[in-house]
Amino acid sequence: xxxxxxxxxxxxEVSGKxxxxxxxxxxxxxxxxxxxxxxxxxxSFTVYALDSRGHGKSGKVRDYNYRDMADDVIALIHFFxxxxxxxxxxxxxxxxxxxxAAKEPELVGKLIVSxxxxxxxxxxxxxxxxxxxxxxxxxxxxxxxxxxxxxITDAELERITADTLVLAGQYDLIKEEHTRHxxxxxxxxxxxxxxxxxxxxxxxxxxxxxxxxTDFCAERRGAAGRDI
Length: 228
Description:
Elements: E1 2-5, E2 8-16, E3 19-24, H1 35-41, E4 45-51, H2 66-79, E5 85-90, H3 92-103, E6 108-114, H4 125-138, H5 141-148, H6 154-158, E7 163-169, H7 176-185, E8 190-194, H8 210-217
Parallel strand pairs: 3-4, 3-5, 5-6, 6-7, 7-8
Antiparallel strand pairs: 1-2, 2-4
Helix pairs in contact: 2-3, 4-5
């Protein structure tokens, strides 16, 4: 279905029954990367798989800003009158999820982010060089977004009240010290560095996160810092 919020049409697939969970994809991708995960989650959750503005079946935009995307998600939560939301975001989706949980903490009950960063400095240098080369060739504003944003402050992270799980792959394109910094500034958060995984190897067209999400959202939490 398509919902108009903040002057843009957002495409959102809704399926399943149970506690609401919103899935937020990475830059340049669509909700389809969660196809296998979303299908499995429908046994326990009502799944809202969203295409961010300018992506997939959502309305096109000229300029991109993570804070606009976060406002879209907040508006979507209000549109569907969702309560006690589980919010999961991968990469850019994780950035958006952090902003949502910081801006309106009362909306999010459980927060899970994978491979998120709070500033461009959180990305490994080799990947930054690659992004700069890509932008020089394509002039794609989605690539420009990753070079100039996000700009999430430590104070914003400290405003997050949701039970939070911070994930990253052992070989992620996000610096491990940056991931640890995020977890350290979200009160009571849990950090897991996933062994043998890269930025999206455990996410894109996979359902490997199913037990992680199901257990965390059901409050069957493991020890902080546990590697899986």
